[in-house]
Write a structure and sequence with these properties.
Helices cover 48% and strands 17% of the residues. The protein contains ten helices and eleven strands. Helix 9 crosses helix 10.
Length: 264
């Protein structure tokens, strides 16, 4: 797989690459299991904004080394004032994670190792999740640390695995492997580790061959339909057909809608 840079790397903590119409954002703090500090969160968001305006059609999120992401950098947070902690939480939950969740293009988490706490929340903000059978570990250890997973862990897993299983993960702090995560429905596929990159990139490139307009329209309508009643779902499907049959004018209308719907 040949990678090319698509931006000057403003921070070595997060890397941005491109393979055809697939953008790759890689957390690059392997020495601390790709834990998140303010600089990492800000740069991650900046790269998402750049990819949103680019011709890239699909975005892959990954981590360097033995972890996808082990959550918040607790050593970094130690000693911070309550106001500083509020700023970090706002950057994490609202400015970065929520922005990723509402990102208009398809997003894929490539989980090659630990996805704990904020790292599991980061993965759940993506549309698709593929994990290493041998090395991926999922969980929310926060309750044993005297906190809770408040960057999405209290609601995102409910959509994937239901209330009871989500409560079990959060309240027990149990860790599960990729096979268990697949059985629960937390991830889309558990893949042998040495095949993970190839499988994810094949999946991403297959998506990237589709119409960008239809990918973004499908994602928008399905996300909106998830919390809508039956009548609203019918309206959304009718609306989708109207945009499709409107040709270039429909594409322009979708762009305007997505700009208005953008979070943060």
């Amino acid at each position: 797989m040949e990678m090319i840079k698509i931006a000057e790397q403003k921070s070595e903590k997060v890397l941005l690459e491109q393979d055809g119409k697939v953008g790759i954002i890689k957390l690059n703090r392997p020495g601390v299991m790709n834990c998140l500090d303010m600089e990492t969160l800000v740069q991650f968001r900046a790269y998402l904004e750049q990819l949103k305006e680019s011709r890239v059609r699909v975005v892959v999120i990954s981590g360097e080394g033995k972890a996808f992401c082990a959550g918040m950098d607790l050593k970094y947070a130690k000693g911070k004032s309550p106001e500083e902690i509020r700023e970090i939480n706002n950057q994490g939950l609202i400015q970065t994670f929520s922005y990723l969740y509402h990102f208009p293009k398809p997003t894929i988490a490539m989980i090659g190792g630990y996805a704990l706490g904020g790292g599991c929340e980061l993965a759940l903000c993506c549309d698709f999740r593929f994990a290493s059978k041998e090395q991926a570990i999922f969980g929310f250890p926060e309750i044993d640390l005297g906190i809770l997973p408040t960057w999405g862990g209290l609601f995102l897993p409910i959509d994937c695995i239901g209330m009871a299983r989500a409560m079990e993960l959060v309240m027990t702090a149990k860790k599960i492997n990729a096979d268990s995560a697949y059985t629960l429905g937390l991830i889309h596929e558990a893949i042998p580790h040495d095949e993970l990159v190839e499988r994810v990139m094949d999946f991403a490139k297959n998506l990237a061959r589709k119409s960008n307009f239809l990918l973004e329209l499908a994602k928008y309508v399905m996300k909106q339909s998830a919390t809508a009643d039956h009548t609203k779902r019918l309206e959304l499907s009718t609306f989708a057909m109207e945009l499709i049959t409107a040709g270039p004018e429909g594409e322009k209308r979708l762009i305007d809608i997505l700009k208005e719907d953008s979070r943060g």
